[in-house]
Design a protein that fits this description.
Elements: H1 2-22, H2 42-45, H3 56-62, H4 73-82, E1 94-95, E2 98-99, H5 101-111, H6 120-123, E3 128-130, E4 140-144, E5 153-159, E6 168-173, E7 177-182, H7 187-191, E8 192-197
Length: 200
């Protein structure tokens, strides 16, 4: 037991020495990737219900997402989308190297044979419009861009909850990459435009 305390003391001393030499920043700062080059839309994307704190595999496990067969295509799409949790945002991205919001949607749905175009304005025209009260897993949720006054489509996600639960959605955000957010009580409520049902 005494050896354990000695080792612990040595490790603590090394960390303190490291911080004293290299500055007051976190020891792990260099491992953090900034996904927004200007941060202008941080206020719109800072309402996630889950944060990117570790690898995407660990995050998927913490969300209870497992590989396997699901009862419906919508459940499979939601599970597959959540398994991409933590992948970085990349403007124009449509691969696991990085996604923009509509690129993430295209990638996920194409995996299940649903060929969706890349572009939030195009995706906002797909399927049929349903009310928020009718929203269900696998529906697309359409928002404005970062300016809620401009009522044109600028952001899109995948609904991961069924009514009557409050709407939560998975999306690729310029602040945080692939993550889960909610609508009610957030700025996404002001930005909300439509729910589009693209699955039968």
């Amino acid at each position: 037991m005494k050896k354990i305390w000695i080792i612990f003391g040595l490790l603590l001393s090394l960390i303190i020495l490291y911080k004293a030499i290299f500055g007051s920043g976190s020891l792990f700062d260099s491992a953090v990737t900034r996904t927004s080059s200007d941060g202008r839309d941080k206020v719109f994307h800072d309402d996630t219900t889950a944060r990117k704190d570790s690898t995407s595999a660990q995050e998927a496990a913490s969300l209870g997402v497992l590989e396997g067969n699901y009862a419906t295509k919508a459940d499979s799409i939601v599970a597959f989308a959540l398994q991409r949790y933590g992948i970085d945002y990349e403007y124009g991205g449509v691969t696991e190297e990085g996604f923009d919001c509509s690129g993430f949607i295209t990638y996920v749905y194409n995996h299940f044979g649903e060929k969706l175009p890349h572009g939030s304005s195009e995706q906002a025209k797909l399927g049929e419009s349903v009310s928020m009260q009718e929203a269900r897993k696998g529906d697309l949720i359409i928002f404005t861009g970062t300016n809620p006054e401009d009522r044109t489509p600028g952001h899109v996600g995948i609904v991961i909850t069924n009514a009557p639960k409050p709407i939560q959605f998975v999306h690729s955000s310029s602040e945080g990459g692939v993550k889960v957010s909610k609508v009610e009580g957030t700025l996404y409520q002001k930005r909300f435009l439509d729910i589009r049902r693209v699955l039968p």
